[in-house]
Design goal:
30% strand; binds zinc ion; 20 strands; alpha/beta; 7 helices; 18% helix
């Protein structure tokens, strides 16, 4: 037995750590998480607070809880929501939130950051994108398509409604952090509605590689992701895509964190700017449509040739499909021209698999060297 880990060993507390402990900044000192039914942001003192927030009762008779981090500034200001992992295996947003909470101090903050590192706790625990209802026949519900309170969707619909009432409704702005689906990689890109001026500014200030303008899609779409339900409630919101599922990618995490720091600065929540502009894109490409190349009716093993961010003219060969014996099945060509926003990294290709997405570039926004939105 390793005596250092025996609680009976009196020398336990005196044992010298093998590595020097990272001391939290005094102003960011956090107490143990409190379990609460509701968040009362107004009653909190300036500083950092951690909570387990009760949502629904669960099938064990206990409560389903989500982790919540609050950073309250020393001066008043808006409440900014930063939500992550509503698709439970899209993990890069979690360290983005942690990094922000290490970087921003209450003395530098005007307002409150309300962050939920894991929105879909069940999907996260099961390493899955979706939320399984515990009723035995409705597995795999997409919480992000149930945010308009579809209570006929069982537990998932009720859970989504609680997220709206207890988190979304508390916020003045929302940055919803996602990632590409499992087996895909992508640029740093953002979905935002250009017809909503405040949301559009938030997206530009994050300085991603690409912004996909969903204004035209928003009118006809029937599903209600968090971003859209928030915008409908006059809470400007955007969806930020950060890297791949099921991994932490330090470079992408870093870029997204600095993008958020710039966006917070531009809504005047920081007394001193904190973003490192060298980490961020100097130009952002804007697209009004996201087009998908798929393998249509054929299946096999796929190798995508086109790289992320590459401009591909119409009819460019973008991928090769072989069968399991190594025989060529098909050379896949893009029927569109534009830049590659995400691409498949998983060779297993069933019919209908998305090979890559192509964005026809409508305009490019040049950013100033520090701060600002470009235009
Ligand atoms: Zn997602």
């Amino acid at each position: 037995m390793n005596i250092l880990f025996s609680p009976l060993n009196q020398s336990f507390t005196q044992a010298k750590p093998r590595f020097s402990a990272i001391k939290p900044k005094p102003s960011n000192k956090v107490e143990l998480p409190k379990v609460v039914d509701h968040l009362d942001l107004k009653s909190l003192a300036p500083g950092q607070h951690h909570f387990w927030l009760n949502l629904l009762p669960n099938s064990m008779g206990g409560q389903t809880q989500i982790p919540v981090m609050v950073l309250k500034g020393e001066q008043p200001g808006p409440v900014v929501g930063i939500t992550s992992a509503i698709h439970g295996n899209e993990l890069n947003g979690i360290p983005v939130i942690q990094k922000l909470f290490e970087t921003v101090t209450p003395s530098n903050l005007k307002g409150t950051i309300l962050a939920v590192p894991v929105m879909n706790v069940r999907g996260f625990q099961e390493n899955k994108r979706l939320f399984d209802n515990h009723d035995g026949y409705r597995d795999g519900m997409d919480l992000n398509h149930l945010m308009d309170g579809r209570l006929n969707q069982g537990e998932a619909g009720m859970y989504a409604q609680e997220l709206v009432e207890k988190i979304v409704d508390q916020c003045d702005y929302i940055f919803d952090l996602h990632g590409n689906g499992l087996g895909r990689e992508g640029l740093n890109y953002i979905y935002a509605d250009k017809s909503n001026a405040d949301s559009w500014k938030m997206a530009l200030n994050c300085r991603p590689d690409v912004i996909i303008n969903i204004a035209s899609k928003a009118k006809k779409h029937t599903v209600m992701p968090l971003m859209r339900i928030a915008n409908k409630k006059y809470i400007p919101a955007i969806t930020i895509e950060i890297g791949q599922a099921c991994v932490f990618e330090p470079k992408r995490i870093n870029r997204a964190s600095h993008g958020l720091l710039n966006a917070l600065n531009e809504i005047r929540m920081l007394k001193q700017p904190l973003a490192d502009y060298d980490q961020l894109s100097k130009k952002t490409k804007i697209t009004n449509s996201e087009l998908f190349v798929s393998t249509l009716k054929k299946g096999g093993l796929l190798t995508v040739k086109s790289r992320l961010g590459e401009f591909i003219p119409k009819n460019t060969p973008v991928a090769e499909l072989k069968d399991v014996f190594g025989e060529n099945v098909e050379t896949i060509r893009s029927p569109f021209e534009g830049i590659v926003v995400f691409r498949s990294t998983n060779p297993v290709a069933a019919p209908g698999k998305l090979v890559l997405s192509v964005a026809p570039v409508a305009e490019e926004v040049q950013h100033s060297s520090v701060g600002g939105t470009g235009k």
